[in-house]
Amino acid sequence: MLIGEVARRSGVSSRMLRHYDTLGLVRPTGRTTGGYREYSDADIERLLHVESLRSLGLSLRDVGRALDDPDFAPDTLMEKLIQDTRDRMAADARLLDRLEQIQVAGAGDWPAVLDVVGLLRAVHSEHPAHRQRAALRAGDAGLSAGALTDALVAESDENVAGALRWALAQTPGALDQLAPRVTDGDATVRRRAATALSALHDARTTAVLEASLTDPDPEVRRTVALTLGRRGVEAAVDVLVELVAAGDRDVEAAEILATQYDDDGIVGRLVYRLGADPDPSVRLRLVQALAEITGGAASKALTELGDDADVTVARTARAIGSLRSR
């Protein structure tokens, strides 16, 4: 079969067939008396193999290796094809998100569309200053909560993240976009989403945050507990007590416990958790937490801690107790 007929029947151009010949991928085994390429049935079969492998996304070099290299591993080939396919799907998903974000922005004319496109590019710029300026302009340009959330969960610069959180707090639909991110498999994404949610002050947000009090990541638990504690949410108390025990933002946690909750109940829970801890530094933090709380229960607990086996704990408790009695 001559090259023209092969091209017509296979859909592979004559130019590409000559290129395959030059590369050694598909070389016609015969020539006519006039010197024209003549393809055998085996040549046609090899051409079909080449085209099949190319349709999977392989380069011509990889196609040649797959067909001719006896040491070529099919598993390696499949891993590469799978990863390449995933990369293309991710790129398509990002493009779809951008297009939807532009549509949601509701730009009514080409200058407005171009402004939104420019802002979307800026919010993902490699330069933090550009990203921050874009975040501060997001409200005026009508950038969607989805676009801002995508930018926020990927943002490592705290100044830019602060601007994005500020923009999100003023953007309709922020909670709906952030809520799924607090259950993300990536702890960093959950931390950023929880911090952004702390700027929203409605019952739905509080319910979403409560569900994260048991998050496996201590930073997420801390952020959520401090936020809910400032709102007087009862479910946050146990985590706040644990922050005191761990010395993790313990002063802030103690102040919240002292100002947002019933004094006697909080004293009981603090003493129960920390009072018998074998670590003197934990008991010392208990003393310091009790110093923030007024009322008879706190005074009684300080008196008892004045007899603590650790000298520093005992002295600190007695000193605070004597100041309270004046």
Automatic annotation (TrEMBL):
<protein>
    <submittedName>
        <fullName>Putative MerR family transcriptional regulator</fullName>
    </submittedName>
</protein>
<keyword id="KW-0238">DNA-binding</keyword>
<dbReference type="InterPro" id="IPR000551">
    <property type="entry name" value="MerR-type_HTH_dom"/>
</dbReference>
<feature type="domain" description="HTH merR-type">
    <location>
        <begin position="1"/>
        <end position="69"/>
    </location>
</feature>
<dbReference type="GO" id="GO:0003700">
    <property type="term" value="F:DNA-binding transcription factor activity"/>
</dbReference>
<dbReference type="InterPro" id="IPR047057">
    <property type="entry name" value="MerR_fam"/>
</dbReference>
<dbReference type="GO" id="GO:0003677">
    <property type="term" value="F:DNA binding"/>
</dbReference>
<dbReference type="Pfam" id="PF13646">
    <property type="entry name" value="HEAT_2"/>
</dbReference>
<dbReference type="InterPro" id="IPR004155">
    <property type="entry name" value="PBS_lyase_HEAT"/>
</dbReference>
<dbReference type="Pfam" id="PF13411">
    <property type="entry name" value="MerR_1"/>
</dbReference>
<dbReference type="InterPro" id="IPR016024">
    <property type="entry name" value="ARM-type_fold"/>
</dbReference>
<dbReference type="InterPro" id="IPR011989">
    <property type="entry name" value="ARM-like"/>
</dbReference>
<dbReference type="InterPro" id="IPR009061">
    <property type="entry name" value="DNA-bd_dom_put_sf"/>
</dbReference>
